Amino acid sequence: MDPLERFAELAGQRFAAPEMAAEAATRTLKQVLGLTAALVVRPSDAALLVTAASVPSGWGLVAGHAWPRDEGPSLDGQRLLVCADVRQQWPLGARPWVAAFGARAVLGVSLGSAAGAPLGMLIGFDARSRPFEPRAVAVAQALAALLGLHLERLELLRRHAALEQSLAEQRAANERLERMSQTKSDFVSTVSHEFRTPLTTILGNSEMIQDDGVTIEEVREFAVEINKAGQRLKGMIEDMLDLDRMEAGMLNLRRERLDLNALVGEVVAQIRPIASRHAFRLQLDDAMPPLLADRDKLVQVVTNLVSNAIKYSPDGGEIRVVTAREARHARVSVIDQGMGIPPDALDRVFERFTRVETGQTRSIQGTGLGLPIVRQLVRLHGGRVWAASQLGRGSTFHVTLPFDDGVEAAR
Ligand code: ADP
User: Fold this and answer.
1) 333 CB under 6 A from ligand 1?
2) Model pTM?
3) Angle at CA 228, nearest 5°, toward 226 and 229?
4) DSSP per-residue letters across 263-276
């Protein structure tokens, strides 16, 4: 191929890495000038790195070889090195990077600089001594300039990618901050809204107690209301503190061997009296082995799910609680026939303070802390919780709890 064609081809390439551009340049230099060897050295930390080498195998030099700075060719300010016979040019002939190969003629051109830092040098060697006529020098210089452009372009692309990366990281951090700030303002608005209701009850009832002429029965009724509202406030504060403690990893489980079916039965028996409009159906797997779990925490998990099933099916219906023994874990599912959850909220409901806002849910009291607590407690047990739902038809919450760390539950 004609040298000009080779140059055109080299100029038109879009190399993916500096090594590839350097490789193409060394090959072209060697072929066009009929040299024994050609290589590209580039500065790297304290060393000079051979980025590409088209050299005879006998030279024992491969790409990746590194010379200490003072043993390789000097890159500082040296733009052109033309030597017809190193034996006649002291001390070049004695320099390790020349002497090691027994090369006679050397032609080196620096690659220019990107942002003030030298890019490296393109070097050709001939085993025989030979004068380098001006045309040969011009070829080497043109090739070096071309390679310099390629290297500069790649360096720019690298910096651009690094910038993009840090921009993306910055953007993600901003989004996280925004989400946190949103959660915080949701928190403030939920807390103030949810706290205000029981507080209003407490304030109203305690004022009425002070009226003249209230009977002792009325005082009792007011006191009952005040107590209920106070309990509700206490519950909310405890929920928030619990969640914080769990998220900070400060809650330890007290595991014991327990019968999951019996626990589910107890929770449902406890709750049943407050859900007169609902029919409960238990489907418990007789083959369920004992679980190693924290009883109080599991009671809380099942209680929260069954309470939600009741709360969010205000028209009543059936609530089914199913246990199933699976290969590595026990599964508990709570299935209701209530209002359901929109698909885009199925994951979100497990986040703090998330409440699905619809006309129907607005009148139902809640804090958006029940499911986050369930999720944390289940995670502490090494399990998983997720929801499935058909809007307007009902929801199902599944919990899996692994049997004792692969040993399977104690029999
Ligand atoms: P809370 O019930 O106190 O609002 P949760 O964290 O227990 O908080 O639930 C979060 C939200 O998930 C609820 O506000 C409700 O919108 C939705 N949700 C939970 N359980 C059900 C269910 N069984 N059916 C329909 N929606 C539910």
Assistant:
1) no
2) 0.57
3) 65
4) HHHHHHHHHGGG-T
